[in-house]
Queue: 2 jobs
Job 1
Amino acid sequence: MFDDVVKGVLAELEDARCVVLAGRDGMVVAAAVAKGGPAADVVAASFADLFRRVTAAHRDAGLSPPSEFTSVGTEGKAAVRQVAAQYVLMAVVAGNGSLGRTRFALLKASEALQSEL
């Protein structure tokens, strides 16, 4: 089921390079990578670490924990969404990819995954 969901997100998003379901520790649970896309294990480890840091920053600022965060660069964009207490779903898209569509696709996918996690 996990593989089907991440593959579905990769297929749904034009310009998607990589979609990963990972533990908050950065361990890959399921991944789908487009030809020439970044390594799923590197994406998982890097963005899970960033999500932990964003969560700490929210806590330090007296904010509620984040449910998602995004990152934008000239060559690409990334979105990370918490699925369950110990799991995050992330997508990396090319620079011309739609961040709004990416966030929406991750939201729909996370809802589908929550009952399984």
Note: The chain has three helices and five strands.
Job 2
Amino acid sequence: MALLPLFKTNDRILSQLQTQWAAILNVLIGNPSLQCNILSNVSLKNGVTVINHLLGRTQQGWRIVDINGSASIYRSQPFNDKTLTLTSNAAVTVSLEVF
């Protein structure tokens, strides 16, 4: 995650403001859950399903944001930079937030 850049200036007040803004905004910029993708209408089968998470980086986490049935779903492989592997005990359609 890129941090907020600080611009060189001789103005002491502007320099202090930049430092204060960076201290606040870098916390938000660095939060992986704010840099997410929503994967809608993902069909999970009874068993293992591999999904391309489209993040272009190693995933930090995931959440189910919608589900059309009752199922127990868990991640069954370590996070990586391309896919999310989920195991379900029922065939369901979900929408996922991946971050």
Note: The longest helix spans residues 12-29.
